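hi!! sorry for the late reply, been swamped w classes. u asked for the two structures so here they r. pasted raw, havent cleaned anything up. first the sequence of the first protein and right below it the tokens
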Amino acid sequence: MNFENSEKLFNQAKQYIPGGVNSPVRAFKSVGGNPVFIERGEGALMYDADGNEYIDFIGSWGPHLFGHNPLFIKEAILKQLEHGTSFGAPTELEVKMAKLVTELVPSVEMVRMVNSGTEATMSAVRLARGFTGRDKFIKFEGCYHGHADYFLIKAGSGALTFGVPTSPGVTKNIASDTLLADFNNIESIKQLVRENKNNIAAIIIEPIAGNMGVVPAKKEFLEELREICSNEGIVLIFDEVMSGFRVARGGAQEIYGITPDLTTFGKIIGGGFPVGAFGGKKEIMENLAPVGPVYQAGTLSGNPMAMSAGFAALSYIKENEDIYLKLEEKSKYLADGFAENLKQIKKSYAFNRVNSMMCMFFTENEVNSFADALKSDTKLYGLFFHKMLQQGIYLAPAQFEALFVSLAHTNEQLDKTIKAHYESLKSIL
């Protein structure tokens, strides 16, 4: 493949944008080489500035459940565009969107729209603190909840990739209120609760962690977590920015049958536009301004462009109950192909999957936690990534990220991916 135009664009970008990118993982630092610059997408395919075609398995890091540029979302956007892009005033679309979210996710009785997943999680934690009158909260090592200061304490995703446990600029005072627990280890929670009795406002968790690879929580772990929160007056927050509307219509909480107090959303809820949301119990949500004392605001929150795209996406999900069965069929087909390849090559690499989210770890140990994920051979993943890229398969440029299957992926494209997977592994092992 020729990447001449991408290289030129990257060199130009580095003059005006720190590192040449607007989100660190895009820089290809963890896999080596230079990033490709994407020009357009259609269905399951993307095309770069040099005209190279890729089967895309990141889908803008999860939002593109239906593939790139689906007609029904495009029509909704164009219709709204005729009326205006933003008003800074309430619209009917916001009401319709909020109502639809509460219909699809039973634990959400009220919802507030924001502009990103980070906004959603930071607002949910602030709300939990305001509701409980407590300062501290618990997060899990390896889970990523955005780039708010108090989340960047041994964070996953991009921060993990760069091998830095914390980010400069995060003060000791802020960090002191963030308590770290071990994913899938309930004893670590019990210990923190004992040591910080009546001072923990919330526990926030990705029920399906997608930023240390794909690592699902164990059902019994979440059940005990729910019980502890109920007994101790702690707000349980499910971060479903990634898993919400991705693994099931009602998200991970539908799969596990566990009800959180608050849930955060992003990605799919925006239909490809920047958007986030958080919602949950009415008694908690009504502590938000203007009815309550907990302040939260956003100039472009609930803007009609994002709401039109998001409402179209969620309406399609509501009206087509079989989409998650279709996603499961496609995802299983791909995963089974990968498994057969590993069998042929005589490797037993860890492979985690929940519906259309999956990850192959370059380690032969089971991956159930952050520590397990760190055993992966990231250099080997980098070689694998570039072998796949050269064959027209676009994966996440980092070991600790998810692969996403969309409704737009065809069996022919999945077969090509399975073949490329085999050839890539064979060439590097």
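now the second protein. again sequence first, tokens right under
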Amino acid sequence: MKRIVAPRSKSYEHRFLICEFLSKLDEVNCVEDTKDQSKLINEKNEAIENDAEDIIATKNCLYEIGQSLKNGNQKVLLDCNQSGSSLRFLLPIVCALGLKADFIMRGRLAKRPLDSLLNELIAHGCKIDVSDDVLSTERKLKHGVFNLPGNISSQYVSGLLMALPLLSADSEIHVKKPLFSMPYIDITLDVLRDFSISVSEENHDTEHIYRVKGGQRYILPKEYVVEGDWSNAGFWFAAGILGDEPLVIEGLNPCSLQGDRKIVEILKKMGADLRFVTDKGKPVFEAYPIGDKVLKSIEIDAGNIPDLVPLIALLCCLADDKSKISGIKRLRLKESDRVVAIENLIGRLGGSIAVSDDTIEIDGIGKERRLKGGKVTCFDDHRIVMTAAIASLRCEEKLLIYNAKAVNKSYVSFFDEFDRIGLSGNCLRK
């Protein structure tokens, strides 16, 4: 059986890098030897092989913030590339540190929603200006009560959760329900606990409240391993199911807080043969080909697992009957209008898909048909590229994917692994 090691969880890695940096603030501010200080910052932010573009953006921004602090809080230029996580996490932190900064936003990032967070930062003492693709901020963030909607982006909450412990006094975050993507907030809280940051929670009928003590210190844990990424591992589960031979997927935490762990439950409902076993004392998952069998149709609410929707939509396209995926409205605000991208991909492959405001319905092609193949554009969206690659396993003709390099945003080595385990025979990239 061929084996795949799941890539590091981008969700955990973002948060760990930021918290690690915040645990070093005293060193950044107090080390007198410029050479030693620069070495500290460089070592901790140096890009390593196979870093996703989002992670590189965060590392580069942290480096620049460190340089600014070292040089007396001079104005800092922060290039977030297309990373929503980098912008939404670091903006409140820069404000909490009282730095002047220009955030550079590339691609669709400037068009993705941010108003709710900006309004709260402004209400608590910050001056923020947005012009074209540059967001400028100055003045120090004040403590208090922050009110946020829960149905736009959990990253607003996560960014504040990491920033507010730096303030001198206590704060609260009131999140109006419904609260989508809560597993991502749980990941933030998990990492904060590892860094000795205390946050209390209250769950009410109409809102969720987070209470954050001010004046806390981030303390670097003695040991820390970033767990594997469940959202990207989902593509390998699908590859094992749709391919000709089983796959072993390593590096995943079966008890992870990542919401995308739900992919196992979803695939089993669709009739997939997935097995959790222990191999040399470590947990691994085995995914077995369905062969001539057909996946079962499903109905799911994807509100907490938006990153899985492109892959699930593809699998529904291969199922025996009509499937329904709800809770997809926020997908229009991703790296692409991901609803349009999914609709385009499935349509070009010969599938039948109907889209409404918050729902996708897909007619499965059943046992007698295969997908078409041909040429597909992926809207510069990494998850659409990977979904198309998996689709090629069930295409009658070769599938040519345009702008396949978009995978670099989250999974640089995806196609290296795809080729290594022998899946690329029907998949061309340009």
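hope this helps!! also noticed smth abt the second:
The domain at 230-429 is CATH 3.65.10.10 (UDP-n-acetylglucosamine1-carboxyvinyl-transferase; Chain).
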